[in-house]
Amino acid sequence: MSNLRVFAGPDVAEDEWTDTCSLYEEPDVIPFEAILNRLKPDANLTPVARAKALHRNRQCPCCDHPVVDPVFLSDGVRDGTGDFIPGTATLVGFHCRECNWEWPA
């Protein structure tokens, strides 16, 4: 088993040590509001509202084709493998596979 050594720093006089410590009296505060605001879902991004929007737009309004793809922004939260977590990206619209018509959500 090895011994853990602690580095005490350079030898400084008592008055130099207090001057050095006074520089660090104020703690560093890191604001996390931006991160927390990004993680909070908006009112229109709730799972129920998302499901209602997907259900309302399940077929194309132009050609009534039943195969429609939702269009998302790339702002979703990623998991440990780098894939997007379903339901975290912003739903911006829909795209019809038949006539290529796109409309907003």
From TrEMBL:
This is Uncharacterized protein. It comes from the Bacteria. It comes from Stratiformator vulcanicus.
